[in-house]
Amino acid sequence: MLNDKKIKIAIAVGISMLLIIISIGFAIRSENNKKMMGETIEETIDREDDVPIIIVEPSPDESDTPMEDLTGKIINPLTGLYVDESVLERRPIAVMLDNLFSARPQAALSQADIIYEILAEGRITRYMAIFYSDYPELIGPVRSARPYFVEKSLEYNPYIVHVGGSNQALKDIRTYEMADIDGLSSGAFWRVSHKRIPHNMYTSSKVIVEDANRKGYMKTHIPEFLSFNEVFTAIDGSEAKEIVFEYKEPTASDQTGYTTSYIYNNENRLYYRYTNGKPHVDENDQNQLTCTNIIVQYAKTQVIDNEGRLKVDFIGSGTGKLYTGGEMIEIKWEKSSARSSTLFYKNDGTPIKLNPGITWFQVFETGKSETIIQ
Question: pTM of the full predicted structure?
Answer without folding.
Answer: 0.82
